[in-house]
Design brief:
The complex is a heterodimer of chains A (about 240) and B (about 400). Chain A has seven helices and ten strands. Chain A has about 240 residues and is α/β, with parallel strands linked by helices. In chain A, strand 9 and strand 10 (about 220-225) form a beta hairpin. In chain B, about 55% of the residues lie in helices and about 20% in strands. The chains are: A alpha/beta (about 240), B alpha+beta (about 400).
Chain lengths: ~240, ~400
């Protein structure tokens, strides 16, 4: 079980700002294998968000290489990146990012639209996914009608619908209370147990404690990369 | 995929009904006015074409020169320079289908206790052929009537209405023109106004010889005021004009340095200029209406740009979960096209409706052709694509990270 889902070598990203070239990420090396549950931590400005954008194929690196499931992402065109985001990666955001005017079912099924899946199959699969996150019977609701925790579950269902290798969660519990946060983290734990690689960004230690491995960023570098201490109590 | 996208576009339009409706209004007014203006313009063209066709086609009128007795010039048509023999000579020329010598003038008609002033045309049977004039009832006079100067008449619609009671059949009745009794043997079909606005139906047609001897009286036997002639086609008209001029100059023994003692008027030229005027008018109307269509298109672009900004975050989400640039482009383009086509359909209905309304309220002739409807529809769809493209491309070019961060 040492197949690398993510392998980055010397990954760097600089932004052009008014003050000149700003290096947000300065040569990061990291390998994440299939089935891992990794928490990426660090204060704001440490480069962790830039790193997540690169991992999520939303952005391309300035230097270095990024292999996603052994494919070099660095030189791909925007359409190829879009296909990777659609098929290989599932995103979960801090702000849930559901389409407010679409039903939960349509929200969950949205990635399948861009995978050109036929309507009936989309609907069936969306209902399956909603059931998986404990929201059967909510298919026709609108996002505004349900709680934040439920919205995040819908977002997770949406991330899962195309059977991705990898779930990327950017501060998934940032907008939730601690009780709901624990529920969501438990759900991530279950998905990880099913073999899905989960990478989440957080700055809360108790959220990171649910992960099996913690990578800490500071000033564009990785400063520590350790398994979660058992005493911290994973679930 | 397309079905899903159409559904989404419909959904997005429904989410902001007021704004969608106002955007559509631009297209509605644009298409509606194009359809209405084209209907009015084509109606005018049709009306002119109708009038022209009542005159008869490819006609020339040869008018006698003026007289100059004692310094008082009489105006054209009164000189004794044309006669029946000229008409007979002209009919021998090539490319001429009908020749009719005409002696005409306004005379008082009397029937019973009623009297009416009408245009009296003394001519030969071929006049009706040249003018493409048919009879509603009765029968026309023939060459023997002309030879023996019979007192028979064909009466036009307006003249008949003013002399006879409604429902009274003029055929067989005797009217008097300058004390001379005439038996009406036929009624002419209605022709309406000519290009000058004169009522062509306020007419009585009688044999030429009768007109010359009994009604008008002529200073020289056989002289006529005009000769109507019809060329066999529009192409030969210039040649016909030349040969007729040459023939008449020769017959009238005019020297090289002498002016013509007759005038040749081409009715087709007047008709052409009238047709050209209406054509320009309808083009102008169409052009003005097109401006409103253009403004409608700009309205769509405006709203789509607002929509793209407003939905930046949605675009970011869609991109993050796998929408390619062309998917986003197609989504917004489709929305713009749907708005413009929906607006176009409503505009078509309104335009056709108001054209029919104009037709009902006024006497204006309205022609709604499938062509103009098709043009309006195609242009509207084109406007949707053209003005929808820029906002859609702007949406597709968004950076997903920026778009996701957008509040």
């Amino acid at each position: 079980m040492s197949e690398a889902v993510i392998r980055v070598a010397g990954l760097g990203k600089s932004y052009v700002t008014a003050a000149g070239l700003f290096p947000a990420l300065k040569g990061v090396d990291l390998t994440i294998n299939r089935g891992e549950f990794v928490a990426i931590m660090g204060p704001s400005g440490s480069g962790k968000s830039t790193f997540m954008n690169l991992l999520g194929c939303l952005d391309t690196p300035t230097t270095g290489d990024y292999y996603l499931v052994e494919r070099n992402v660095g030189h791909m065109q925007s359409d190829e990146l879009a296909i990777l985001r659609n098929r290989t990666i599932g995103f979960v955001f801090q702000g849930f990012n559901l389409l407010p005017r679409s039903t939960l079912e349509d929200n969950v099924a949205l990635p399948l639209v861009y995978a050109h899946v036929e309507r009936g199959a989309r609907r069936e699969r969306a209902r399956e996914m909603l059931a998986k996150v404990g929201l059967e019977g909510y298919a026709q609701s609108l996002p505004a009608r349900i709680s934040g925790g439920q919205q995040q579950r819908v977002a997770i269902a949406r991330a899962l619908i195309n059977s991705p290798r990898l779930i990327l969660a950017d501060e998934p519990t940032g907008n939730l209370d601690s009780h709901t946060s624990a529920d969501i983290m438990t759900l991530f734990g279950q998905l990880n147990d099913e073999g899905i690689t989960v990478i989440l960004v957080t700055h809360e230690a108790d959220i990171a404690a649910h992960a099996k491995r913690q990578v800490r960023f500071l000033d564009g570098h990785i400063v520590s990369d350790l398994p979660t201490p058992r005493s911290a109590g994973t679930c | 995929m397309l079905g899903q996208m159409l559904g989404e576009a419909w959904h997005a339009m429904g989410c902001n009904r007021m704004r969608t409706a106002l955007t559509m209004l631009g297209m509605v007014i644009g298409v509606g006015s194009v359809v209405l203006m084209m209907a009015i313009g084509q109606g005018a063209q049709y009306a002119v074409a109708q009038t022209i066709s009542t005159m008869g086609s490819n006609l020339y009128i040869v008018i006698a020169g003026s007289t100059n007795p004692g310094g008082v010039r009489s105006g054209s048509g009164f000189g004794p320079t044309l006669n029946v023999a000229d008409a007979e000579a002209i009919s021998e020329l090539e490319d001429i289908t009908h020749v009719a010598p005409v002696h005409q003038g306004t005379q008082q008609l009397v029937y019973g206790s009623k009297n009416w002033s009408a245009y009296v045309v003394g001519t030969t049977p071929s006049y009706l052929d040249a003018r493409a004039w048919t009879l509603n009832s009765g029968y026309p006079f023939d060459d023997s009537d002309v030879r023996s100067a019979t007192r028979v008449a064909l009466i036009g619609k307006t003249a008949a209405e003013n002399l006879f009671d409604p429902g009274e059949d003029p055929v067989g009745k005797t009217i008097r023109i300058r004390q001379t009794p005439f038996v009406i043997i036929g009624t002419l079909s209605a022709k309406g106004q000519n290009l000058d606005g004169r009522d062509q139906d306020d007419t009585i047609i009688i044999p030429l010889t009768t007109a010359q001897r009994k009604v008008f009286g002529v200073p020289f036997a056989g002289s006529v005021r005009t000769i109507v002639l019809q060329a066999s086609s529009a192409e030969v008209m210039p040649a016909v004009e030349k040969s007729v001029t040459a023939l008449l100059r020769q017959r009238h023994r005019l020297r090289e340095d002498t002016d013509n003692d007759f005038y040749i008027r081409n009715l087709a030229a007047a008709a052409d200029s009238a047709a050209e005027t209406t054509r320009v008018m309808s083009l102008l109307l169409g052009a003005i209406a097109s401006v409103s269509l253009l403004v409608g298109g700009i309205g769509i672009m405006n709203i789509m740009l607002v929509s793209v900004t407003e939905r930046t975050r949605e675009i970011g989400i869609r991109m993050a979960i796998g929408a390619r640039q062309k998917d986003i482009l197609a989504q917004f383009l489709l929305e713009a096209i749907m708005i413009s086509i929906a607006g176009c359909l409503i505009g078509l209905i309104l335009g056709i409706g108001s054209a029919l309304g104009v037709n009902a309220i006024t006497d204006m002739v309205i022609v709604i052709s499938g062509g103009s409807v098709l043009v309006a529809f195609t242009v509207a769809a084109g406007v949707g694509v053209f003005f929808g493209f820029y906002p859609a491309r702007k949406a597709a070019a968004l950076d997903p990270i920026e778009a996701l961060r957008y509040q």
